[in-house]
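Action item from last week, closing it out:
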Amino acid sequence: MRLVLFVEPVVFRDDPLFLAPHLDWCEQFVQALPGSEPVLVSGPALVAAWRARRPGREDGLDVEIDGYELLAYHGRRRVDYLRALYGGGDAQHPLARALGALRERQAPGLAVLCSQNAIATAALAGMPQLHIEQAPLPRVGHPARLALDPCGHQTRAAPQRLREAILSAPCDTATRDRLLGLRNRIRLQAAQARLQDRAAVDALQSLRRAEPGRPIALLALQPRDWVTHEGALGARWSTDELLLHWADQLPPGWLGVPTSHPDAPVPQALLQALARHHPQLRSLPDGLGLGTTEALLTRADALVTVSSSSAATALLFGVRCAVVGASPWTGWVATAPWQLAAQRPLDDAQAVALLRFLTHRYSVRLDALGSALRGTPLLGHQAQAIDGLLDAAAYDVEAAERLFALPDPVP
């Protein structure tokens, strides 16, 4: 089977090799599907790095796409290209033409796409696709896991499309109770996995005691110049502009506490300046908002984010959530901070239904990808793959527990 591996060809974060970790995912797929014939579609630097891993690889098999030519189609305006990644596809786009030529020449049987790209998704329509990224499960202290979505990444993804089916799926009492216990153990560990997690939780609790009765929303930032940042938002925002915009939209009396991605720390001086300026902004001391969103979700009242997988953690923990950009959680969450006061978080039964979906075929351990792919319906066409995701009879709660690294439950 010819296997197309698509890694975004446009340069992000000023580094042509920034997405090199996606090549590790691609390598895992090649190993997990013995006999497959991989074809990497990406920018020249990533194709060269891929070929360096595979000495003697036939020349011309992989497809190099100059990301700057793709940007030129948009007048070299990166934000316009990013908007196109969240659109409906464009048959005349140079990326679509390149992928169309690849389909005619090599007749691939499966496409694996590593990030949101509506142009590529449309150009490869009609053939089995898997959209992969880090699984939308709590991450800190747990093994590396991938999400296998047959529908999409940030837009048209399975959680968005299948919400009602996920929440209404039948579940026997024993499985439901076991999954509720699993969710509670995950939440407990999130609050105390690392020293900085415990310190961050203590700091948030101190803030709550200092200003009792004021609900606290985490304002979770992501790195800028990222496919799921400018593309999801549809515009470029500086860090301070975005935080002030979110704070302006919080319900009256609410407090906003920024947290940041480990790869993009926000200077403490900036956070303090914003807190001095805006009456609804507060900052955690000593950089305790860096990489601690999961832990803080065990104590916060709500989360505001762009499209981060932390939204899924908020849903699982029963925390209100607003996702302000295009997201697989559209329909599950609020779309603006001002809506948080009226939003109802998932109750335990709904959180368990979502956890069961996310831990059944949708999420797999990276070190067990081969066994997960053997015989899976997710390698079929989309309708078959969706049926496989919703096949409650095949659910294995012990396999779900193996997706996490948790101490044994107390008898």
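Closing note: The chain is about 40% helix and 10% strand.
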